[in-house]
Design brief:
Helices cover about 10% and strands about 40% of the residues. The radius of gyration is 15 Å and the shape is flat.
């Protein structure tokens, strides 16, 4: 049996300080603070850390890694709870040959919060 879990986007963007492709589940405030600081280390002023109640919520992140231009993206599309795990469905996008894009380096990412679970999280692209 599977159940669709509700989630809320905390932040989604194209520029951060994470140049590697990373997917992570965060269940404690100290790791949340470190991730937020790393994500916004090149931003001034840094946006305030969103409040998360880690007794009832957790964070799920997807970082695409550094790309050589704009037009790339990553999005958490769906979270499904199964008996033994959570499945997080990701969608990657990239520019087409005819698309106009910026020539800046980008690091697309998506951060969401959802109800806390101790189940294993499996990312599906």
């Amino acid at each position: 049996m599977s159940i669709e879990k509700k989630f809320e986007t905390i932040e989604k963007g194209d520029y951060c300080n994470n140049t590697f492709e990373v997917r992570e589940v965060i269940r404690d405030p100290s790791r949340w603070q470190r991730l937020w600081d790393q994500t916004h280390s090149r931003v001034y002023p840094k946006p305030p850390l969103p409040a998360i109640d880690f007794k009832s919520e957790m964070i799920i992140t997807a970082y695409l890694g550094q790309r050589t231009s704009g037009g790339y993206g990553i999005e958490i599309k769906r979270i499904t709870e199964l008996d033994d795990c959570l499945e997080v469905y990701l969608e990657k996008s990239e520019p087409g040959l005819e698309d106009m894009t910026s020539s800046a380096l980008t690091q697309p990412y998506h951060i969401v919060k959802t109800a806390k679970s101790d189940k294993e999280v499996i990312f599906i692209v």
